[in-house]
Amino acid sequence: QTGMTTYDPGFVNTAACSSAITYIDGDAGILRYRGYPIEQLAEKSSFLEVSYLLIYGELPTPQQLTEFTERIRRHSLLHEEMRRFFDGFPRDAHPMAVLSSAVSAISTFYQDSLDPFDDEHVEMSTVRLMAKVPTIASYAYKKSIGQPLLYPENSLGYVENFLRMTFGVPAEPYEVDPVMARVLDMLFILHADHEQNCSTSTVRLVGSSNANLFASVSAGVNALFGPLHGGANQSVLEMLETIQADGGDVRSFVRRVKDRQAGTKLMGFGHRVYKNYDPRATIVKRAAQDVMGRMSTSDPMLDVAMELEEIALADDFFVSRKLYPNVDFYTGLIYKAMGFPTKMFTVLFALGRLPGWIAQWREMIKDPETKIGRPRQIYTGAVQRDYVNLEQR
Ligand code: SDX
Predict the structure, then answer these.
(1) Is 229 touching ligand 1 by the criterion CB < 6 Å?
(2) Which of 341, 344, 378, 389 is most buried, taking the most CB atoms under 10 A from its CB?
(3) Of these residues, 185, 193, 278, 328, which one is catalytic?
(4) 3-state DSSP assignment of residue 37
(5) Predicted complex ipTM
(6) What family does the database annotate (predicted)?
(7) Cβ of 159 less than 6 Å from ligand 1
């Protein structure tokens, strides 16, 4: 009986670990961070406040939030020698590959404060990652378009600073669109944690060897890169672009997916846990309609996405397999409307998921009982046999 929830023994035996951070009920479509419903946090909170909640377990007081925000602001710069690091990548390097490499690389400047069992070191690593990952993400983008890197502007808010470093240029002032910043802040909240998903379990598993927080998060970034996980938001846009390029015939595309001829699943649909509508997708869909509504030109791809959802949700192939839109189905449309290229979509997912990775790593390091144990296997290989000399083979 934990958190007013009773688990059947079968579930407990298959659970990778225990955790007090995020609760999901896949059948009921429930998602709560430290007990708070995602719907309330998305509407009323901010990404840094939710990050504090996930990492420290409680909503911050006004003073705690101010101090947390200030600590992060003071560490948003990268070590100047990191600027050369970005020169080493080809211009078309995928920003997720740059991100995972850079997250690991920045730890080399802090080798005297990486001890996972030193509270001060863990605190500094937490703040440094929260502060520097947006800077790295924006630099990965700037590198890909051959524009100069912008230093952080610490008079701006967390998301605003990221937007300015990403879309600003030294030649002219950059005005952050407050609506865009608020929507992106809310999207980061929706992505902030999600129990033991592939990338978070990776962070825990790597961290269970007492690897430092930077190394563990870098591994999480690589896991998120996969198209079936965080890479799905990029794949959704590519799927919608394919449908549009084929004349927008959604029904024939759905038929090809069902006949396994589309060479792809319905990206942005289905979930390992949610066998109902992903509660985050509901919020993102509303935000997508709102953002498009504010745009002078609505994106025809939103119409394709909504038609695709309508057709799929009326089709027994998807309903019988409990395949509903997940968090990735609509997010890409909003990112595209904001001006991000598809290659940056998964980087945005990583920015949102960062506090969840940090919180889960800290929980595991603090309480070895919550470590993902060493996984075992069912051996299906050859039975014992004796060595055969080369000349006799
Ligand atoms: C994320 O775990 C998390 O919490 C992840 C995440 C997070 O916040 O961290 O929520 C983020 O990763 C969301 C998921 C993003 N991925 C995609 O949108 C990619 C498309 N989705 C599929 O790859 C798939 O739905 C999964 C991997 C997400 C979930 O797969 P399941 O539920 O384990 O289902 P399955 O792979 O066992 O397939 C069951 C059946 C199969 O058909 P049959 O063999 O029974 O005939 O459903 C089919 C699958 O082929 N199927 C799909 C499908 N997903 C499953 N068919 C078409 N389109 C799909 N999207």
Answers:
(1) yes
(2) 344
(3) 328
(4) strand
(5) 0.92
(6) Belongs to the citrate synthase family.
(7) no
Give 59-111 pLDDT, tens digit per residue.
999 999 999 999 999 999 999 999 899 999 998 999 999 999 999 999 999 99
Q: Are 79 and 109 spatial neighbours (Cβ–Cβ below 8 Å)?
A: yes
Long-range pairs, 288-291, Cβ under 8 A, ≥24: 288/330, 288/331, 288/333, 288/334, 288/337, 290/183, 291/179, 291/183, 291/334, 291/337, 291/338
Does 34 contact ligand 1 (Cβ within 6 A)? no
Q: Which atom of ligand 1 is nearest to the CA of 275?
A: 32
What's the whole-model pTM score?
0.92
Q: Is 259 a catalytic residue?
A: no
Q: Look-up: residue for tokens 């952080």?
A: 152
Residue with tokens 């999207």: 187
* 268 Cβ below 6 A of ligand 1: yes
Examine the residue annotation and report whether 328 is marked as an active-site residue of this protein.
Answer: yes
d(Cα 249, Cα 329) in Å, to the nearest integer? 18
